[in-house]
Amino acid sequence: MDANVLEQFEKLFQSRIDKLKKDLEETYSTRIESLEEEIRDLRHQLDAAQSYSSRSSPSVSDLNDLALPANVADFQLDPPDPVIRKWSAGQHHVSSPSLIPSLLLQRVSSKVQRIWPLGSSSNMDPLQSTSGPLTVRRNSGMSRLSAETGQLSTPNQIVIPESMIQGITFLRVTHKKKVQRVLTLDEKTGVLSWNNKPSSQLSLDRICEIYAGEDARNYREEFKVSSELANRWATIIHQRRGETKLRALHLVIATQKEFDTLINCLVQLVAFRREVMSGLAQAGPRFVDVYWTKSNGDDRKLNFENVEKLSKQLHIHCSKQYIRKLFNEADTDKSEWLNFDEFQEFVRLLKRRTDILEIFKALAPSGTLSLNEFNRFMLDVQKQAWSDENIERVFKKFSPSGTNLIGPDEFAQLLATSQYFPATAEENRDLSRPLSEYWISSSHNTYLVGRQVADGSSVESYIRALQDGCRCLEIDCWDGVSGPIVYHGNSIARLTGSIDFNDVIYAVLKYAFISSPYPLILSLEVHCNETNQTKMVSSLKNILGDSLITQQIYPSQFSLPSPDELKHKILIKVKSSIKENPFDSFSSSNSNSSSTYDASDEGMVVTRSLIAIKKSKPVSKVIPALAELGVYLSAIRFRNFSLPQSKSVTHCFSFSEKNLKSKIRDPEFLQQLSKHNKKYLTRVYPSMFKITSKNFNPIPFWRLGVQMVALNWQKNDIGMQINHAFHSSKVGYVLKPEWMRPNPFPIPVPSGRIKLSIEIISAQQLPRPRELKADDILSPYVTLEVYGLGDDLVPHWKTPEVFDNGFNPTWNYECEVVLDERDLEFACLRFSVATADFAFATYTAKVARMNQGYRHLPLQDYQGEDYVFSSLFIRFDKIRA
């Protein structure tokens, strides 16, 4: 063998070894941490048992400490402190008060009120450690905090009850155990903790959602917790610093009073922190106070260099001349320093929105906006049908005290508040129809973290997909040394690495319903021998337990069950055990279809002297015990639509993208497939050998009624951006329109025409792309594309550049497009912000879900993460043409 080839082999294998080591460390770190926590708990209980065993008369509370309640419903503490707990069984006896934790004794001390210290700790500054554009996970927010518009308020000072400092007793609920803990808040760092370990702490700044009451019902039901505890159950979704993974903390608070204290305090604190972090759009007096303190330290004034530095911290990317102009305007005494009042004026000038001022002048020629004028604006322009009570509440919140009028500054702040003017509306949440009547958010090669070929496999990819609302995961199963493993079997020289099958299933158990309570589908591609298939069956049943569907919920069903009926359930899609010709398929992905292999996809070029692709082994026959788990999704090969097995309600066809595109050229097949998909399930996946994991446009397949259009989630390209727009709620199920669902009477396809009018007005606080050199200027422009109009038409527009202004560029660029009404269910608008030759921010939305009127669109980077400070300001209207 050629020496160069050998050298390349050695480098290749060494790279794979290094990658495998890294993957193993990441995969098992979480499990090791969990085991360490259990060991600590067991040691604590052992120490307690040894202590209590020496007593002559252990109390009821002693026994309770040793034996955790078997059911959460048994957890009742009223009042919360063990020293004064009442028991229906008899008297409460404490034999040794010295053993009562000092923390609990402190809780009966005087209730001292503490004020949140603004800017007193470096941990409080969200900008201090920010080296690049600040991003957070997509759609993270406190959207579940208020059931009614305008209810959330944040006072000028956040009062922290003493009980939050000393500790609130709660029951922590996980899949493995239910354990009593004490939750405390460090008022200096803003960290909640319930143990001394770093893994038992969370920062207020990393809280993504707080679910309580009815909004937390799905989580409570997942753990089969009694509805009697609904009023004291809360779920906090959060992230750890440096991680993208979402985590859930489930709590049952001891008393209703402490529950109300905890939730109210957390809501106000998190809302306060977000206001400070929200940039200039909603900057109020507290914003000025915080950044004045941060910027000047012990001094009582700021010079131009201080202000310029602060501007960079706030992601204000514009010319130095512009900052100097505003500084000079604010510096009324021409001292080259800004005192506090002048700094307030500087911030006001920065916030000044000339684009919104023009809108305001047209609405309120008198210079102020009355309640009646605001009401007309809401109905005629924004097309938001709020109740009179809500309109009045919001109006009063933004009008200066005692005036009952809104000025231009208040109007600009109100218009920038996504709580009142969201870019998109909620989708239809009717989840009572059969599964086949929904589009289901689906993933292909879920285990990959990069390209389809040659990049690694990771359980993290499954976690990320579940957090983003994916409801159909692919698991490609092969024989490992000691059991089934997951990897991309036909990848070149198996470069993708592997994951233990059990690790994947444990991750599924933990994260399956963190974003959506509706059924999760595991699409198994089985290449294992019978022994490992038997292990797979055992793992699925033992790990997933009652969550796994093993039999039909209603025997002799003539249609599939609904997502509502399958909440918190996991379904298996697996090949039928019917004997098939093993040479009919080529790859793991098309083992359930009739697709053909075409190495021309993606212009694949491989050096044959270095790496050769072995012929695929025959597809393994699925053993009956595993095939039986495909209760509602028994995967069969497509032959034609007339066979009896093609009319079974539980069957599922799979096609590759390339194969299905070829088949639908036949008009008869196209018509039959559309009819078939009204009642039965179909899955489409990317063609083999797409080395870069590039995705296709899913819209043409959604038009055919295909429920599971599987995409490569590791690639946030146009296809995935459209998919995220389609499934923006993260529920994972979108109801098809009536004319695409079975009906005893024909439903006509909409035949009208709709005109869309879009005005791209301005952008706010655009991030500076990392690709720009230090001396490069940021001169942004916006492109707009419309997808989903049929016939592969993609109308597009481009605004002019705005020279050297990434802070508040203004375009006032108008465009129109007319589309068929039936296209409203599929059409998506894609906005991209670019400079020079590359785009750096984007936003995609489904047209049918876009709210009309003036809207601030949240911008994302090309990894799908939100830019915290940045937005695109547009006006959007749709009327019948």
From TrEMBL:
SMART domains xrefs: C2, EFh, PLCXc, PLCYc
Protein name: Phosphoinositide phospholipase C
Gene3D superfamilies listed in its UniProt record: C2 domain (2.60.40.150), EF-hand (1.10.238.10), Phosphatidylinositol (PI) phosphodiesterase (3.20.20.190), Pleckstrin-homology domain (PH domain)/Phosphotyrosine-binding domain (PTB) (2.30.29.30)
Coiled coil: 25-52
EC number in record: 3.1.4.11
Pfam family, one: PI-PLC-X
Organism: Wickerhamiella sorbophila
Annotated function: The production of the second messenger molecules diacylglycerol (DAG) and inositol 1,4,5-trisphosphate (IP3) is mediated by activated phosphatidylinositol-specific phospholipase C enzymes.
Stored CDD domains: C2_PLC_like (cd00275), PH_PLC_fungal (cd13360), PI-PLC1c_yeast (cd08598)
Lineage: Eukaryota, Fungi, Dikarya, Ascomycota, Saccharomycotina
Residues annotated as domain PI-PLC Y-box: 626-741
